[in-house]
Design goal:
This protein has seven helices and no strands. It has helices spanning 4-28, 32-56, 58-101, 110-125, 134-145, 162-188, 195-216. The radius of gyration is 21 Å and the shape is elongated.
Length: 217
């Protein structure tokens, strides 16, 4: 039987992936505006997926339940892999900047080269705020909420609880996402390496986790 307490537990369970992705984005150093928009999108998608299932029926729910682990794995691996590639490219670019500007570095230019390394280390510890594209936001929203698509069928016997559940799921996802962004931003300031590396690895790990959970279920 679906109760308010079970809905609260369901909302918390569904928002774990959003929370982890938000931490990864916070580590990457996203801007406050991007974090707010992404948190709202996470809430809208998490609450919207069960709503769609409730009105459309079990036909699409069965389809998405079967393929959602693959979709989440592909989307999160793609975005996380892109972060790792970007981090590698940035590392190669920064490490070769000294050689391009003053090659070879002799005693008279060693001091000019050294600050560049210091700046790279400082940049890795405190990533500069960056904007997140709308496309990336939508992909992350879909990847983290697609497992909630089949939840709507739970409220067919209790339609009076549908809108309470949708609101609770959406608000919980948004709130947990904002907390995740804040925690990630704090953690990103203390990393001794490029924050994109950890953020990308987290997204890939979440995709693998969703995929394994989907296969086991």
């Amino acid at each position: 039987m679906v109760t308010v307490f079970s809905i609260i537990l369901l909302a918390i369970g569904l928002t774990i992936d959003c929370f982890a992705v938000s931490i990864a984005q916070g580590i990457q150093g996203v801007r406050l505006r991007s974090a707010l928009v992404m948190a709202v999108l996470f809430g809208v998608f998490q609450g919207g997926m069960p709503l769609i299932t409730y009105f459309v029926g079990t036909l699409f729910a069965d389809f998405f339940t079967r393929w959602s682990p693959w979709i989440a794995l592909v989307l999160l691996t793609f975005i996380g892999g892109k972060m790792l590639v970007d981090a590698y490219i940035e590392h190669r670019r920064s490490s070769s900047s000294c050689n391009r500007s003053s090659a070879p570095c002799n005693r008279s230019t060693e001091q000019d080269c050294q600050p560049s390394a210091d700046n790279n280390q400082s940049s890795a510890i405190s990533p500069q705020p960056s904007a997140v594209g709308v496309g990336t936001m939508l992909l992350l929203s879909v990847a983290t909420s697609i497992d909630a698509f089949s939840v709507g069928v739970l409220f067919v016997p209790v339609p009076q609880l549908l809108w309470q559940a949708i609101a609770l799921i959406a608000l919980t996802s948004t709130g947990f996402s904002l907390v995740g962004f804040a925690l990630g931003k704090i953690l990103g300031r203390h990393l001794p390496f490029d924050a994109n590396i950890l953020a990308g690895c987290i997204l890939i790990a979440i995709g693998i986790k969703i995929f394994i959970d989907g296969l086991m279920n």
